[in-house]
Structures
1.
Amino acid sequence: MASVYSVSQVTAYIKNMFTQDFALNRISIKGEVSNCKYHTSGHIYFTLKDGGAQIAAVMFSSQRKGLAFELAEGQQVVATGTVDVYERDGRYQLYARKIERDGTGDLFARFEKLKRELEEMGMFDACYKQPIPRYALRVGVVTASTGAAIRDIMNISARRNPYVQLVLCPALVQGERAAASIVRGIEILDRMGLDVLIVGRGGGSIEDLWAFNEESVARAIFNCQTPVISAVGHETDVTIADYVADLRAPTPSAAAELAVFDYRQFAEQVAYGRQRLNRLMGQALERRRFCLEQGRMKLKLYSPEHLLNEKRQRLADVENRLAGLIKERIAERRHRLALDAGRLDAVSPLRRLGGGYGYVTDEEDRRIVSVAQAVPGERIQIRLSDGRIKALVEETAQEPLLAAFGPADVQKTSAEKGRDSHAQEEDGGEGSARRAGERSGD
């Protein structure tokens, strides 16, 4: 019976064969770079291929000094290193120590040629880019129905906003018929009047992504009336579709983040906006109320009724002041009148007549104020308070003034006697003067 070996034994044996092969220990391989990945550790993983085969390759970070340019998809290079077996995966690969350029690969050349042509036609110009709706509610997706891209888009969309509707148009994203399938999906969704489209697929080699470098796909994206987000491959993958689309997303997941707005954040913004609006409206209403109150006060201040009331108040004040002044003046005049009346009464002939005195005249009504004016045998008239007496002068005699008064008259107060004396003097003076004038006239 033949010997039975374990997988590890066989792999180790093969690895030993590779190690002992002098040609494989220092070999230079020419090919086109494909599926190039820069790892966070600094290692570079890529594939070298030609028309008939391909070989996996890696350049460790410690060997990066052997690379004088940035390795990228489609480059034609010559990689020098060792071909050895990676025992864990049971596959062989090239461990590159040095990589040099060897011209541009066919696919890369086609990529650059189409890119220049479309750019010259203006299809990449920013003036043709449509804005992506901020609050899209219906999002169309053109991608494979079973790939990782659609699952990522669905998961992120559900997390960010469960109310957004996703419309998938399944398409081939790899192979000869992929370009036509993608174009058809774009045209179908564009006629549905959606808010935004996501066109893309997951990562892969340049050959895997080549459908998105076809001119027909580029023109379908350019002519689409609905805004288009391209989401092809990984962040380092760039296709013609990325240049033509209205917005490029580095991955399908990122495209979902850009197309679907966060509902919770939106609700918070709406709540904040409502609070701010209410606050601003309250402040505006308060300012309007203040202005209205000021206007009302000004209107009241300058209104005819207010002015009339003010005039009435002033008139009432003036009337009060005038009434008080008049009262004072009347009281003053009454006081003065009382004084004058008292003085007049003191010198009034009627008062003297009422006190028992008489007014003596001759028959011709000439006043007699002295016994010298009375001639015995002449008739005289004596006027009292209640009438007139006609008398005949029998005789006259000169006597002192006090002798003519009785006991009652002597009891008069000195003030009254002074007033009476003063009045008699005035009457006597006037009478004497008149009698003298009358007699001189005679």
2.
Amino acid sequence: MLLGRVVGTLVASRKDEGLLGQVFLLVRQLDLDGAETAGSVVAVDSVGAGEGDVVLWASGSSARQTEGTRDRPCDAVIMAIVDSWEVGGETRYRKTPADGEWAS
């Protein structure tokens, strides 16, 4: 599993039948300090994430293990929206209802 931030959406009006009804989001990978890395991916959203959300995502064969992606042709899936994380006892991120910004 990897940490990422949803940075956008993707619309594909023509797609494989196995992807009909799926929502595609653009995810930028994050490091443990919350900084965006150079990597990004198009992922199927299985949890109702939105732009700006910090998420857990998986790629490869693991992406086809959620209920919504089982046996579908996808290589990346968002499977959780992150509420908070700590590293070494220090809070690195805490989502707030108002802004979802990084903890300071």
3.
Amino acid sequence: MTALSALPRLLLWFLGLSLSLAGVAIAADPFARATLTTKGTIYAGQQIEVDVDVFVPNYFLSPPQFPLFDLPGTVVTMPDDRGLNLNETVNGEAFSGIRKTYVITPQAPGDYALPAAVIPFGYAAVPGQTSQGQVTLPSLKFTVAAVPGGEVGTPGVTAGEITITQTFDRDPAGLHAGDALVRTVTIRAAGLAPMMIPEPTFDTPANVQLYRHDPVLSEERTSRGDITAGLRKDVATYVFAKPGTYSLPTISLPWFNPANGSMQTAEAAGATVNVGAAPAATPALAPPAPPTTEEPFDWLWWLGIAASVVALAALIQLAANLSGRLETRLETAFKQRALSEATAFRHVLDACRDHDATRLEAALDRWSRGTGNAPLSRWLEKFADPATANAFADYRRSRYGNAHSQKAGPDYTRLRGGLKAARQRWLTESADDGGGPESDLPDLNPGLEAAPPRRLRGAG
């Protein structure tokens, strides 16, 4: 077979392959379809259902956003928010689908068509990758017929079945002037949304006031959650101001049954209300006052009060004891600090700083007696340097010498610094010996304090 004769076969093979690939590509695209599930003739005011299915290859990654579209001349609702999951194979390709059901109630006869609404979604065109897609609501047409015998220009009520029940809160035959009677009317419409149930008419007799309450709309569902009927409950209160006999009219609702093509009427029977005169107010003898009874003594309450008082007193006493102990400890601490060696020597330094000879004499005498460093001259010979000893001798001459022996005033600054250094050496030596200055100074002898101080060796 020559190459020329094989060329047509090769072209046919390529053409078949291309068509096959095109068929797969077409089958792999998302698509949508709409189905009218209501069968038979559709009448104005009848509630019909339209299923819209959206299919994608592989699986959804974000659910379709079904729009609540606007269709002129109808009322469109989507009562069930849940979607039905579907699986389908098209041309050997597996598709996943989600179904939503629209409920459409046409208000007038005529031809209707679904609008081209867009439904976006996300799906896995390639497994593991998100692709954004959308489909257009498929074109679906349906025809609505007029209700036989219905009024022109009014949609009427078309349902599978409508029943009306009513209750009264009391016997209508036993009222008096000024009383009120509550009438509750419940309408059940199979195959009709609650919002599509007409409002019942409450005709009011003369001399009767009527008060309407807000209606209550609900749905009757099966154990699986499927809607079987719409419910509307209306409550009206009649107030009869005058006695007499009144007739409450029948509440009726005409409706069309598409199953047999006939008009029917649901009714709530009227009622006759007999209202008598209001009973005259007769003075009644006041019943005797009941004997006064004393309240039983509440032992538990008084025991609780007593326990609370005792506990409070114990807390106050405890606080007072703790406060007294704290005050005593603080007072002892302050007293010990005031009688300590450091405090006594601080008085010596303060007197030197103020150049107060009298105060200095008393402070030195108290410190030396309290620390056992008397006579002070011996302590100075051991711990003070010569300059400090000379400054102290000048101080003693200025205080106890005659005017001729006093050349100049004592050098309090040198004396202050020298005494401070001597005390430091004394403290260091006492610490090395394992002892130390006593923390508290003993009480001084008042008689010794009153006696004139002894003159130290070397004093002029």
4.
Amino acid sequence: MKHTEPPSPQSCTRSSLFLIGKDSRGHWVVQDDQGSCGGLFVNRAEALKFAMFENGNRPQAVIMVPGIFELDISGKAGPEQRLPSNTIQMQQVA
């Protein structure tokens, strides 16, 4: 029996960009650039798998964020407020 991913309760397909990084507790964080969906993951592979699934398998739309990246579930902050203050360069996943 093949395991398939359940659909996301809230579609993230409108999002053009997904950010991936680690929070201050060492969990992997994924959040779309609109702040409408995301989650915490135990490892990078699962975080990347979620981001790729939600964005239609587009690696060019996944950005690795260096430094501390906290999940914001308030929905009030824009993408520039979600990025760590020490972010100089983001790395695109290929």
